[in-house]
Amino acid sequence: MADLTTLTWRVADGVGFVNLDRPERHNAFDQTMCEELSALWRRLRTDDSVRAVVLGAEGGKAFCTGIDRDFVPSEGGAEYTFSPYTYDDPGTLLGPKSNELWKPVIAAVDGLACGGAFYLLGEVDFIIATEASRFFDPHVTYGMPAVYEPLLMLHRGMPFGEVLRMTLLGNHERMTARRAEEIGLVSEVVTDADALVEAATWAAGAIASAPSSAVQATLRTLWAGRELSRQQALDLGGTFLHLGMSEEALAEGQKVFERGRIEPRER
Fold it and tell me: Same domain, yes or no, for 201 and 215?
C-alpha cells in the first residue's frame, strides 16, 4: 500500500509497523485515515508475512486525539448524520477487531491519547506507553455524550469507576501513564520514545516467533470469551482449538523446542 497518505507502514521479521501519520493534526482521524486503516487491517488478515502488529504514531506529541474537528466526508463517501434511529459512526472503521483482524496488535502510545483514540485502544491486545503519555476523554466537556469510547474501554476491562471518572471529568483531568498501568489499562510504562520502540518491537517479535495459527486461534478464543458465559466460552474453545491446531504449526513449534531454552525477560 504505497499510496497511503495518513499512515506509514513497513514489515520486518514478521512484524508489521503501522504509524498514524497526521502529526500536524495530532494524529486526529479524518475519513481518509478511517478508510486507509480499515483497508490495511483487512489486507493483513491474509498477509502471511505479518504475524503481529505494532500500532504507533508519528510526531511524539500525540498518539491520537480522536476525530478531526474539520472532519468532512469525502465526495462519494459515507454521510454522517444525527438520527434517533441510526448513526453511521466513522470510528467503527478504525479498530482491528471491527475489521476482523485476529493477529495480535500492540499499541505503542507516546503523548496524548484522548476521545476517539479509544476506538483504537479498545481493540488492541495490550498497550505499552511512555511516561509522558496522558489519557482522557473530553466529550462531555464540549457538550457531546461519551458513548462508544468508554463502552469499549469498559468492555476491555478498565475498572468501572475509572471509566466513569475519566469520562465525566472530561478535559479537567488527565490520567498519567503510571496510573493507567496501576489500573491495568497499560501493561508497561517505559521512559521515552526510543524505549517504547524497543519494548513494542521486542514483544511483537516474541509473538511473531510462534506459529501464527496457534496465536490467532488463542486470540480469537479469548476475545470471544469476554462476551460469553464460562461454559459457552469453554465450548467455543474446543472449536478454535481444532481450527488452530495443525501438523505444520506443531512441526514449527517442535523446531522452537529443539533450538533450546528461551531465556525469558522479567517485568
Answer: no
